[in-house]
Amino acid sequence: MSGRERNVMHYGGDYNPEQWGPEVWREDAALMREAGVTMITLGVFSWSRLEPRESEYELGWLAGLIDLLWGHGIAVDLATGTASPPAWFVRKYPHALPVTAEGVRLEFGSRQHYCPSSPEFRAATARLAREMAKRFGSHPAVRLWHISNEYGDHVTECFCPVSAEDFRRWLAAKYETVEALNFTWGTEFWSQRYGSFAEVEPPRALPGPGNPTQQLDWRRFSSDALLACYRTERAELPAGVPVTTNFMSMMRDLDYWKWAAEEDIVSDDAYPDPADPLAHITAAMNYDLMRSLRGGQPWLLLEQAPSAVSWRSVNVPKTDAQYRLGSLQAIARGADGVMHFQWRASKAGAEKWHSAMLPHGGTASRGWARTVAFGRELTRLAEVTGARSTADVAIILDWDSWWALELEEHPSQLLRWRELVRAWYGPLWEKNITIDFVPVTADLTGYRVVLAPNLYLTTTALAARLESYVAGGGHLVTGFFSGLVDEHDHVHPGGYPGVLRDLLGLRIDEFWPLPASEPVQVELAGSVYTGTLWRDWIVPGTCEVLGSYASGVLRGRPAVTRNASGSGAAWYVSTLLSHSGLADLFGRVLAEAGVPSGPAGAEITRRGDYTFVLNHGDEPVAVPLPGFDLLTGAAYTGVVGPGDAAVIRAGHADE
Ligand code: GAL
């Protein structure tokens, strides 16, 4: 992939061949070719067929199928097959089944029923991965290794005794002495002191609020435990073929910065809800994250639904325009392929009502016509592969801070990082500002604006880096409840907002969170906007007050501030401003930082020499640009109709 496979914009999906016989495989291979499929994901749920009895491997049927597909010119994204352990495995190793915080052992009969720390599970997956690698590692069809499937989809943590032991090992490696653990976890509180590591358990169901640092470490450990499963399998795969595991968009429980560093290519499974009229904005945000996880390297949309899913309470299908724009949107934001769950609709099982590239109605269906049409259209975008985007604006995403923010017993339990970032992303999306997500360790100097909708956990090292970023001319915008605790969830001394006090040029005397049903008015640059979730009693220092509360007990007090420092500025927003309030504020910040907004009315993104214009609205949109539209194969007209798109190669119109 990436590099090796320039000029193939991949198209395809998951194929679950064990649900069908060889006759159907042959029909499928021919139909895949008709649809322009370039790559198929195979073997994701094949374990019980690949290893029907312990250590007895039957890979011949899969070899035949891979040959068949390759004979039709179709490459394979080969799963290691370890996402759903067979019945014989769980009966022989019942302690490998996962256990919930309440002590319930989850039974066989769905999928992902494994304890991430189970040595038997890890050993069995390593053996299967090894067999797969031995048999298929040098097959020319195998272009990508797909380890397991959606780590953390159903089971993100396990509370069994084996996990507890693994947690203790993880803690001992981190703290070395139990005294260090006691200090860091603040165990003098409520008499929680431990005499030895052996006394420590996972944060199981508890009578009251748990120890926050223990819970934060538990989140870190649980992400690492699954990552260890990934590493165990990865170690068995041959060098040369790129390796991925499919992510689940902006997922809370896994620290994807750490994960992506161990992949060759990032891949994502994206399921925007067709019933949500704003789902494409959330999808854009998720795709920006996928592009960012390996520093702008092209990624793969490895799963999306061709139409409806089967797991929401009401599963609304996609319109043709939603499908097409959603697919092009992933490419616009860095994907080098559009793949689906799944190729052929299942006849039986939990997902039989999920849409597929080849629906139950077969080739007579509208769904099939769409599959063929989009496959053709995608070939026109082959030259876009490998092209990269650049951004002036970054958003800091730190899983440690996200996890810490959502712990119990905070001034408000209503704060959800993903909702905060989504609220900030919306107005920027509307202005067609390209956003990179960055980890706290990133070099920020290339960005004119850095946004941190929330940075509850801010280390002193990060605060120092933010200070030099601003002093060097950067614009930092940060939201409420930021700067407050260190990496152990200990409050920074000296008052709020902790290590961001000097940078923001203010003091917060007291947090004044808002009940869910109680918005507040904020006056900002002559307009009045609504604020929700939060307020602070701000005592301004060196900062300039840009906006003030216009209602409630804090009426007249500062709500939005700006503190000049060096040649940059640090902006602070103490409430969740409404969409229009944020649009107004960000407009000011961007103007001051010299970041141009794109034309509004359509989603417009740049990827290398290509400009994507996606019109999600009901009216035609004029976006005048000289160039050639890859989708129509003709000079770009300058107007994109409702539900339509253009992919414009810069340069002369008549190529
Ligand atoms: C994904 C999963 C697939 C399939 C799909 C249905 O989360 O990886 O195996 O279940 O959802 O939407």
Overview in brief:
The protein is α/β, with parallel strands linked by helices and 655 residues long. It has 17 helices and 28 strands.
Task: Please characterize this protein's 3D structure.
- This protein has 655 residues and is α/β, with parallel strands linked by helices.
- Among the domains are: 214 residues, Glycosidases (TIM Barrel), CATH 3.20.20; 201 residues, 3-Layer(aba) Sandwich (Rossmann fold).
- It is built from 17 helices and 28 strands.
- The radius of gyration is 26 Å and the shape is globular.
- It binds beta-D-galactopyranose.
Strand-pairing-aware structural class: alpha/beta
What is the average per-residue confidence, as pLDDT, rounded to a whole number?
A: 97
Largest sheet: 10 strands, mixed
* Outline type: globular
The CATH homologous superfamily of the domain at 51-264 is termed Glycosidases
Features:
alpha/beta, Rossmann fold, 655 residues, TIM Barrel, 17 helices
Note the topology.
Elements: E1 10-15, H1 22-35, E2 39-42, H2 47-50, H3 60-71, E3 75-79, H4 87-92, H5 119-136, E4 142-146, H6 161-175, H7 178-185, H8 212-234, E5 243-244, E6 246-247, H9 256-260, E7 267-270, H10 279-293, E8 299-304, H11 320-332, E9 335-340, H12 366-379, E10 393-396, H13 399-405, H14 417-430, E11 435-438, E12 449-452, H15 460-471, E13 475-479, H16 501-504, E14 506-511, E15 520-524, E16 527-532, E17 536-540, E18 544-549, E19 558-565, E20 568-573, E21 576-577, H17 579-593, E22 603-607, E23 610-614, E24 621-622, E25 627-629, E26 634-635, E27 639-640, E28 645-650
Parallel strand pairs: 1-2, 1-9, 2-3, 3-4, 4-5, 6-7, 7-8, 8-9, 10-11, 10-12, 12-13, 13-20
Antiparallel strand pairs: 14-17, 15-16, 15-18, 16-21, 18-19, 19-20, 22-23, 23-28, 24-27, 25-26, 25-28
The structure holds beta-D-galactopyranose.
